Amino acid sequence: MKFIVLLGDGMADFPIPELGKRTPLQVAKTPNMDFIAKNGLTGSVCPIPKGLPLGSDVANLSILGYDPKKYYSGRAPLEAASIGIDLSPADVAFRCNLVTLRLVGTEFVMEDYSAGHISTEDARFLISDIVRELNTESISFYSGVSYRHLMVWKNGNTDLDLTPPHDILNKKIIDFLPKGEDAKLLIKLMSDSQIILSSHQKNKEREKKGLNPANSLWFWGQGKAPHLISFKEKYNLTGAIISAVDLIKGLGIYAGLKVVDVPGATGYLDTNYEGKAEYAIAELKERDFVYLHVEAPDEGGHAGDVELKIRAIEDFDSRVVANILKEIEQFKEYKILLVPDHATPISLRTHTDGHVPFAILSNSLVSDKGEKYDELLIEKGSLRFDRGYELMDYFIQGD
Question: How far is 94 from 134, CA to CA, in rounded Å?
């Protein structure tokens, strides 16, 4: 049996008035996802337990089959693993965004959590100066991809109240600065970064081109290295994970899955959709399980852009799901799980908890005759998993 998960990050949404009180999933043309729903088993799953952060880290940990209440230790340690940082037991990793702050009167406002989805090349110029100016014996900065970077604090503190920057767009940052013991250190690092970045030649070049300057660092997602049992040990399956996002790659590393890098995969709407599908099928020829993650729909949700999100969903359907359906028949037995990790509603521009729809297609399962792949499956589907990690148990081990 071959198993593949097709995960469209943040695909689910709320009804939108300008769409006739329909969601982007309901409006988007998704014949291939609809085929899976019509010919498979459908239902709902709650990937994020109450009380845990509303993040893709928690949600994907859950979808992959791990109870977040038992295994979750923070987002940044997963990203650290992805870029080859070996955390000691006393190290605390922090996600470190390059962001754009805008001065409104006398207050700074969070204008852009990604500094205009800054290129990795531009970001490396900036982070290299941050490393030179701000690294100490206990504080180390590391360059990542685009706006996503890391800071590691030796013998650091995890007991801090930190806010993801995408949750506070167009809000005054004064209300969301780090809080808790040792928060002053992080606030000072952020202030120092603003002095370095605001006058940086690379930012001056960006502004001349009409691009957002990356004029501050922003810390969030702190945690220590998690301790997961391997996916092979848990399910007795070999597997691979495909994503452009560091936290998903890091999750794969900690789960003992092969991390597959696809040329041209960006984590944005210009990602190499076809390449991800091609590499997934190639991995299925060698392994039992593939987890294929596409970030683009989530980016549309964070942008609050309906058209962008619909386009991302349609691209996922026509360029990933369609190609998987074309090639999957070469395997004698297979199962496909189609699911988002959470909703990223256009109206909120951030993640929410609660149930999301899923569908499972297999040449060994009887269909429950779903009509279309959208949020209505939350109520109409025949299966329901209130503990998100149990969906993978059913997907792998169920009839």
Answer: 15
Q: Return the ∠ at Cα 8 (arms to 287 and 122), rounded to 5°.
A: 95
| C-beta atoms surrounding 386 within 10 Å | 10
Structure tokens at 85: 């940082």
Backbone phi, psi, residue 311, to 5°? -60, -45
Domains of the chain: 2-72+227-397 (3.40.720.10), 92-223 (no CATH)
CA distance 291 to 124: 29
Alpha carbons 33 and 130: distance in angstroms, whole number: 44
Q: How far apart are CA 360 and CA 338, in angstroms?
A: 6
pTM for the whole structure? 0.87
pLDDT computed for residue 399 by the predictor = 64
CB hemisphere CA count around 117 (13 angstroms): 10
Contact yes or no for 110/173 (Cβ under 8 A): yes
Q: What angle do CA 363, 369, 371 make, to 5 degrees?
A: 120
Q: What average pLDDT does the segment 248-257 reach?
A: 96
Tens digit of pLDDT for each residue in 290-305? 999 999 999 999 989 9
Provide the token pair at 9.
Answer: 């990050």
Convert the pLDDT of each residue in 129-182 to its tens digit.
999 999 999 999 999 989 999 999 999 999 999 999 998 999 999 999 999 989
